[in-house]
Each structure stands twice: as C-alpha cells, then as structure tokens.
C-alpha cells in the first residue's frame, strides 16, 4: 500500500483514507472510491476522504450498513454522484444521517453549472423481442417528493388463461419476484422505485393467450405520512397469439409493441399510468401510449425452458416451456434517463473538481488558498489526461471503435472520444448458456467485426458467457475500469490512462 500511495499524485496524497476523521482534517465521506480520490486531490492535507462503497464494490448495488450511517453522521461534508447511480437505500442513509450543517452534494446533478455535459442513458441490447421494464417519470415536486421518496407500483388485477410472474434475476442468479399471480395477487405483489427511475424485469407467462394486467401507483414521501394515490392502468399482453387480432383494454384500435424498449410507467407529475417507449418503435412521434390502447406482443420466439434449478420452481416444472420477455441486463439495475457515469469524460471530471473545491471552501474558508491551488494544479493534470485519452483513441481505426462490454458505463467515453457502444443480452448465470444465447453473442461479435471485448475487474462474474463466446470467436478479452478501482489503478488518472491504453492495445492493431 505504501508503494501505491507513493505513486499517487503528490498534490493530494493517497486516496485510500479509512474515514477515521484524522484530527485537524475535514472529514469527507463519498459514495465511491472515484469521488473520494477527486476530493483528496482537491483537499490535500486538509482533508481525509473515504468511500462508503468498499474497494472493488459495485456502487449500483451496494447496501449500506449501520456503520455507514455512523460514518455519515460524523462527516463534515458528503458527496454522492446520484442521478440514480447509487441505490436509493444508500442515498436514504446519507440524507437521513448527514448533519444538517454538513454540505451534502450530488455531484452529477450540480456539476452542469460548472460545464459538465450530460447525455441520455441509451441501452441497446439488440433483443429480438420486446424489452419491457418499469419506470417512474417526473419529479413529483408538487406532491412533495424528494430523492428519498418512493413510488409503489402494485399489480392489483390479472385476467388471463395462465399465470404471470414478473421477476428480477439478481447478479448471482437469485430470482426476486415482484408480481406473482401463481398464488393470487395481494399486497406483496408490488415494487418500489425512486422518482425518475427505471428498472429491468423478466415477464413470464405460463400459458398462451390474452392477458390483462392492472398496475396501480402510489407515492410514499416517508416520515409516516399516508401514501398518496396516483393512477392505474390496464395493459394487454398477446402471448403466443397474433397481436393485431387482439383488442386493447378500451376496445379500440391497438398500438402493438413487439420490439425495442418499453416501460410500464407511472407519472409522478400527472398521476397517469402509461407505456413509455422508444418513439421509433411506436410508429409515430409519440413516446407515451395510454395503457388502455396498448397491446404488448409476447411472441412464440419468446418461448424458453424453465431451468432445472429449485430457485425457479415458481415458473413450473423444469424443462416445461413458458413465454418470457427477458430483463436484458443481469442483476438489479435501477437507473434514470440520464447516464450517471459522467467521469468517463475527463471534461466532466474537471467540472466535478471545481464543484468539490467550492464546497470544501464553503465548509472550511480558512483552507481556501489550499483548495484553490490544489484544484488549479489538478485541473492542469486533467487537461493533460483529456488530451492523452483523445490522442490515444484517435489512433484506433474508425471501423474498429466498437465497445462490447459487461456494463453500460462507457457512454460518456464513447461520446467524448469517438467510440461506439454495442449492446447485448447478459444471460442468467443460474443456467448454462443456451445455444441461442451463444449464437446471439457470436453474431454480434462477428457482424460488427469486433476486435476485442471488455470486462470490468469488479464485474468478472457477469462476464462468463461473453468471455466464452470471445474465446470461441478468437477475440481478445481485455479490461476497462468503469465504476471502481482495483489494486492496479488506485486513482482516477491511473484509471483513465489505463482505459485509453487498453482500448488502443486491443482495438488499435490490425489483426
């Protein structure tokens, strides 16, 4: 560790603080190691910065502990990334325990005023059936909603020839049922999302036919206040039957959706429940379709076998066939409409650093000169880093700038430095990959003439099928840092230099 610290930037010291609140130093708690490093670069010897998410942890899924709440309560300043990068449980822990006099800053949301550039989160998984999730839209400010509020989506009625189970497959293959009609619908057939959030789900139907599912929304602002009722809507599913012959809930002309990305959505501002979809797939300029006018196509090519795993017994007997729309991305993956991984564009990291500087000065005015000087020196290093990443990636031939990764963390890198992100389905690790799953990945890599695929050190368990297919295709497997450090990269500068060098090494040379 001493060797690692010696290699860190001299202006800041080492970014692996324990959060012990060193005497005489400003105690700063962040959610991620990357943010802790940026804070330490600005704060230098006046600051002790540490991360709640441990080394190599996944900030999307980290669950806080009572010890984390105590650390937050002792912090002089807290920084989150937010834009739904972190799980709401972690945000609630921070907001509930932070001292009222301690600045509590969401960097991704506040950095735009410092020149940060945000982009939509574009998820293109290349599915050949509809990708169906759940979403909350709007801020709900008129209803008193904050970033710690929750929106409850409940399945309150189902009509159909069989049973419906909407469930999430977590990163280690464990299913988490949200709506399950196999034992009748009740109060437990619900899930919650933060405002402006989206999540992925599997939608399984035990028999072909026409199903009508009613979803009802309500808002929970916490503090023991009663739930505020929102709207409800009834969605129609055509399972294994011709969708254009099916009438929607209102009996009129249907809008049929059978491909692309659609979310069953509750709107916090209007209270309405509708389908929010890729407008190009709707066939018009609209992106919102009222539930009563929609028919969701679940075709026969969505037939899958129930895995021989007791955890999935709720779907039926092992080997029996069900219709299932897949969740597309493995694991619990709640996020918003804006990509939260701003730091993959170095220009955005520079905006973070300036916001961090001004926040530290507001809490510790006596350190203004130190924070200003450290920031100026570090911004110069980030300018050099930005130039290095740009010039390095510019050497990659344009037709080889395809990114196939395990995680949608590289949209800003692609946007800023001329790369293209290609998506795919990550299968359930509880099952052996099917012939069809392997074929889809193989076709993606072959058709795009992908020179290499990229895994993340902290997400290696999600990459087994990608690695298998890459090996079968004779494609190199390389490594990029997305959300976390490891022992080989302990600072933001080291991380981004590695990413540039690795992309050049793996994509830049003609085979």
UniProtKB/TrEMBL annotation:
<dbReference type="InterPro" id="IPR022434">
    <property type="entry name" value="ABC_LPXTG_lipo_actinobac"/>
</dbReference>
<dbReference type="GO" id="GO:0046872">
    <property type="term" value="F:metal ion binding"/>
</dbReference>
<dbReference type="Pfam" id="PF01297">
    <property type="entry name" value="ZnuA"/>
</dbReference>
<dbReference type="InterPro" id="IPR050492">
    <property type="entry name" value="Bact_metal-bind_prot9"/>
</dbReference>
<dbReference type="InterPro" id="IPR006127">
    <property type="entry name" value="ZnuA-like"/>
</dbReference>
<dbReference type="InterPro" id="IPR006129">
    <property type="entry name" value="AdhesinB"/>
</dbReference>
<dbReference type="GO" id="GO:0030001">
    <property type="term" value="P:metal ion transport"/>
</dbReference>
<dbReference type="InterPro" id="IPR006128">
    <property type="entry name" value="Lipoprotein_PsaA-like"/>
</dbReference>
<keyword id="KW-0813">Transport</keyword>
<dbReference type="GO" id="GO:0007155">
    <property type="term" value="P:cell adhesion"/>
</dbReference>
<keyword id="KW-0732">Signal</keyword>
<protein>
    <submittedName>
        <fullName>Anchored repeat ABC transporter, substrate-binding protein</fullName>
    </submittedName>
</protein>
<dbReference type="InterPro" id="IPR022435">
    <property type="entry name" value="Surface-anchored_actinobac"/>
</dbReference>
<dbReference type="GO" id="GO:0030313">
    <property type="term" value="C:cell envelope"/>
</dbReference>
<comment type="similarity">
    <text>Belongs to the bacterial solute-binding protein 9 family.</text>
</comment>
